[in-house]
């Protein structure tokens, strides 16, 4: 960040990126406020406080956090059934839960997300962002379609001429100017809701500090914490790939929690990482530091409070054009090329499609990611269960037979292990060589115990050899102690 402050060209990129993101945040925050059932000011203030807070607290530079649709969907029932005070209490509690999760190391679980789930996550995001633009293109005049087309063309072609100014910012300025000069009657930002005319202030929720209050807000707070963390950590991992840098996921987790606590006490509806706006910031505008994140929040507040009237004149067509190009840049086109699909194992494609379908169907990225991870786990277990085999490798004398177990041994594969030996036909001494295998769990030890017992019932001896250090320790600790 210090390097960016010393480099005027780098600093200009960060500043302009923050401005573009701020403009894109305004209609999104208003829309999510409507979903949550709160005044537009609540969503706009949340976007300001989340962005500014996470710029200092987060572990992923250049990532944008603000009010989001996923969080709005989770907390909407609280607002509808119990009112604003309970909603704010839910946001604060959710932030504390996220901090607790960070302390417990939940952030480290993101490394268990397979690449196919990440690809599905990115593709689903692009589809959802595109679908979110359709209401702005329905029952409108031809002027709107023309403006979107011009905006898309400007964003796509301008970088070929110059990158001095972000193309999305140029598109917004040009289309807004054209709309005002030509007097076009097209939907604009002001149509989405009333913009605030004052700064956010301290908000202390008036709720009783009782177990009954905890019973009401607890489930929603935990749900918001889980959805917000999952979306934020997945977005951080995505930005890591885009920028080819590493981020501190644990710091990001507790940073999100702290930002939600701050947001709640300032009357905001809470939030998490915004993938679309983050892609505008990093992939489209080229920002790389916390400066852009901080300025996105500052510009947002300055624009809606100090320049509400001109900002309200920005045509929605201009912002739709920006988001359409974000979708195009975000979607992993390589993943759906025929050549890629032919080369990719069917299981990997199934995981990616499952993630996309569930995410788009539920409009919840967390559900899609969980589904994708579960499908990937089932596919992995299925593969492992079918690659383990028992082969006869030696018959040194008429009283001895040596078997080798090839493959990983865990509950999915070891359950069939018992049935792969000839208990009646084998000689007096049986040797089982596990040097080409590994014992992963108690199920495998129980299976080996069962094999030994079956041979012993026929008066035969079993010797297990070839155990690596970890397998030997696990076998020694559990063998003979797992029941009858």
From TrEMBL:
Spans through the membrane: 41-57, 86-110, 117-136, 142-158, 165-184, 216-236, 257-279, 291-307, 314-331, 351-381
Top-rank lineage group of the source organism: Bacteria
Cell compartment(s), UniProt: Membrane
Pfam families linked: STAS, Sulfate_transp
Ranges for domain STAS: 398-484
Keywords assigned by UniProt, alphabetized: Membrane, Transmembrane, Transmembrane helix
Gene3D superfamilies: STAS domain
Membrane topology: Multi-pass membrane protein
Protein's UniProt name: SulP family inorganic anion transporter
Organism: Georgenia wutianyii
Lineage, broadest ranks: Bacteria, Bacillati, Actinomycetota, Actinomycetes, Micrococcales
């Amino acid at each position: 960040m210090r390097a960016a402050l010393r480099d005027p060209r780098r600093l200009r990129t960060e500043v302009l990126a923050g401005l573009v993101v701020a403009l894109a945040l305004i209609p999104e925050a208003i829309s999510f406020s409507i979903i949550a059932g709160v005044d537009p000011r609540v969503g706009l203030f949340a976007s300001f406080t989340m962005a500014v807070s996470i710029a200092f607290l987060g572990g992923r530079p250049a990532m944008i956090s603000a009010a989001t649709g996923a969080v709005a969907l989770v907390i909407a029932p609280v607002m509808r059934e119990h009112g604003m005070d309970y909603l704010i209490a839910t946001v604060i509690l959710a932030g504390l839960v996220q901090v607790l999760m960070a302390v417990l190391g939940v952030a480290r679980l993101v490394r268990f997300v397979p690449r196919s789930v990440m690809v599905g996550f990115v593709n689903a995001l692009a589809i959802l962002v595109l679908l979110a633009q359709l209401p702005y293109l329905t029952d409108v005049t031809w002027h709107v379609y023309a403006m979107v087309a011009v905006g898309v063309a400007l964003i796509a072609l301008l970088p070929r001429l110059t990158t001095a100014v972000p193309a999305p910012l140029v598109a917004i300025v040009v289309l807004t100017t054209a709309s005002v000069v030509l007097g076009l009657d097209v939907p604009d930002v002001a149509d989405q809701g009333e913009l605030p005319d004052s700064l956010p202030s301290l908000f202390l929720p008036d709720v009783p500090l009782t177990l009954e209050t905890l019973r009401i807000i607890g489930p929603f707070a935990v749900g918001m914490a889980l959805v917000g963390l999952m979306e934020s950590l997945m977005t951080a991992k995505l930005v890591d790939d885009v920028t080819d840098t590493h981020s501190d996921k644990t710091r990001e987790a507790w940073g999100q929690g702290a930002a939600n606590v701050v947001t709640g006490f300032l009357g905001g509806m809470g939030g998490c990482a915004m993938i679309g706006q983050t892609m505008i910031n990093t992939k489209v505008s080229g920002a790389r530091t916390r400066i852009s994140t901080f300025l996105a929040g500052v510009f947002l507040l300055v624009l809606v409070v100090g320049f509400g009237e001109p900002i309200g004149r920005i045509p929605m067509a201009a912002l739709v054009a920006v988001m359409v190009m974000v979708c195009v840049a975000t979607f992993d086109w390589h993943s759906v090329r025929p050549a890629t699909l032919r080369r990719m194992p069917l299981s990997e494609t199934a995981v990616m499609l499952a993630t996309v379908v569930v995410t788009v169907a539920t409009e919840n990225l967390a559900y899609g990611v969980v589904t994708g991870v579960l499908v990937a786990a089932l596919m992995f277990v299925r593969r492992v269960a079918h690659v383990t085999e028992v082969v006869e490798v030696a018959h040194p004398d008429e009283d001895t037979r040596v078997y080798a177990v090839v493959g990983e041994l865990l509950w999915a594969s070891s359950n069939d292990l018992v049935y792969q030996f000839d208990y009646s036909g084998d000689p007096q001494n049986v040797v089982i060589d596990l040097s080409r295998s590994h014992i992963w769990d108690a199920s495998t030890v129980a299976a080996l115990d069962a094999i030994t017992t079956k041979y012993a019932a026929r008066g035969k001896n079993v010797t297990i050899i070839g155990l690596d250090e970890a397998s030997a320790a696990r076998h020694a600790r559990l063998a003979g102690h797992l029941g009858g």
